Amino acid sequence: MENHLSNTNFSQKELDVSHSISVYLTKVYNWMAIALLITGVAAYFVSGSEQLIQLIFGNKILFYGLLLGEIGLVMYISARINKLTTSTAIALYILYAALNGLTMSFVFMVYTSASITSTFIITAGTFGAMSLFGYYTKRDLTKLGNIAIMALIGIIIASVVNMFMQSTMMYWIITYLGVLIFVGLVAYDTQKLKRIAINGFQNEDSMEKSAILGALSLYLDFINLFLFLLRIFGSRK
């Protein structure tokens, strides 16, 4: 009898954990999808306006100011997420997605619509496959994540150097390494988010803010993977 009750309690606990993971990851992917939609709409809108294009890309101070603002927002959200109210975290997250759309409008200016669409589909398929792998694998991906993060720092430095060197070979090495890095980060971040859900949350508010932060990390993985794949598969106008 005790054995039966113990098994029943264990099964109930597993169901509760499974439900918590499902609810949390649904929130994460929903927020990620919202950010991608906002970025896409903003980028498309700007690309269709000569005045906005001239304003953003014709003024280096404004353009680099927007880029620095985006970096600052990501750092601020990541560092202050626990001290922010949920509404403030959501507002800053949406603001970041919109700002990113402004600077990413060059995609619609440089590449054909057909290649943007096909690359987006390839990115979505790759992202989905690696996210599923990260969710279901029994292997600890922490080491993979650490290597990917260190490699990311390396290609950022290499990209800055190549702005002056203008090496075609280095450009393609960075591109293919970038794809591999963000493919790995998708799996790593998904597994990390699953572990966060397993550990549980203090309340609904803390879950919502954690979902915003998780969505931000996956959004960044998706956007960067898309941009690197666009270098490979994109057809320029």
Helices, strands, pairings?
Blueprint: H1 2-47, H2 50-57, H3 60-80, H4 86-103, H5 106-110, H6 113-136, H7 142-165, H8 168-199, H9 204-233
Helix pairs in contact: 1-4, 1-8, 1-9, 3-4, 4-9, 6-8, 6-9, 7-8, 8-9
Kindly describe this structure.
The structure is a single chain. This protein has one domain. The model has no long low-confidence stretch (mean pLDDT 91). It is globular and about 55 Å long. By secondary structure, it is mainly alpha-helical. It contains nine helices and no strands. Helix 1 (2-47) packs across helix 4 (86-103) and helix 1 (2-47) packs across helix 9. It has helices at residues 2-47, 50-57, 60-80, 86-103, 106-110, 113-136, 142-165, 168-199, 204-233.
- Sheet bearing the most strands, described? none
**Overall outline:** globular
| Portion in beta strands | under 5%
- The total count of helices amounts to 9
String of helices and strands: HHHHHHHHH
Mean pLDDT: 91
What is the tally of beta strands? 0
Report, as a whole number of angstroms, the end-to-end distance.
73 Å
What's a concise summary of this model?
The chain is built from nine helices and no strands.
Descriptors for this entry?
237 residues, mainly alpha
